[in-house]
Write a structure and sequence with these properties.
36% helix, Rossmann fold, single chain, 225 residues, alpha/beta
């Protein structure tokens, strides 16, 4: 049985996904948070995701282990590929092949089981670092798949993939989160956290985060090493 106000929210512990979770909560959704250990360089981000999910009072938070590192092909899963510390051309080496497709597929299965008709994802096409699976076209295409490939979709319970940040700048996202009462000190965006959960301050993701806080006119509360 579906619940019109239940939603599955992908939560990484990062700035964007945390803002999306806070936004979904503010809109009255009963949120089921979903995070992954997918073979990433660090597991500290999962700890941040757990903190954010608990602070937002989610109904349930699942952390699922999958092995994207079995294929590799990304600086986030392969220790022998360096994380770049300056902007690069084209799709960066921090792109993890098919990651958002896999994450959304898991979220789709979870949504069917809990009766949720909405899936929230914090992808962004403005400050998105060139990732192909953060574009509006991808989100729209996956929503079509969701409604073609599921019992819920076939039986007329339309499933929606919501990406409310997709056209917003990082500064706009930060302002939204602050208005929702989100504590960004409890989030992390770094591609190469240390064992204590401190950010490097040099990678692409840290750079975009720093620029976002600067543009928003807000002090960056990130814990850097």
């Amino acid at each position: 049985m579906s619940d019109d106000k239940a939603a599955v929210v992908l939560v990484s512990g990062g700035l964007d996904s945390s803002t999306v979770l806070a936004l979904a909560k503010s809109q009255g959704y009963s949120c089921y948070a979903l995070s992954f250990e997918y073979g990433q360089r660090h597991k500290s981000d999962v700890v941040f995701a757990q903190r954010i999910a608990a602070a937002q009072g989610v109904v349930e938070h699942k952390v699922v282990r999958i092995d994207l590192d079995a294929f590799g092909g990304s600086a986030l899963t392969d220790l022998d590929i360096d994380v770049p510390t300056s902007p690069t051309e084209g799709i960066p080496v921090t792109y993890v092949p098919a990651r958002n497709t896999v994450f959304l597929a898991y979220a789709l299965g979870y949504a069917e089981v809990v009766g949720a008709r909405d899936i929230f994802i914090g992808v962004n096409a403005v400050d998105y670092s060139g990732y192909p699976d953060c574009r509006p076209e991808f989100v729209s295409a996956f929503e079509q798949v969701a409604n073609l490939a599921t019992k819920a979709g076939v039986e007329g319970q339309h499933l929606t993939v919501q990406a409310p940040l997709i056209h917003k700048t990082k500064a706009e996202i930060i302002q939204m989160g602050l208005e929702l009462g989100l504590d960004y000190a409890e989030t992390v965006s770094c591609y190469q956290l240390d064992s204590e959960g401190r950010a490097c301050g040099e990678c692409d993701s840290c750079r975009i985060r720093q620029e976002g806080f600067r543009a928003a006119g807000v002090v960056d509360p990130t814990h850097y090493r």
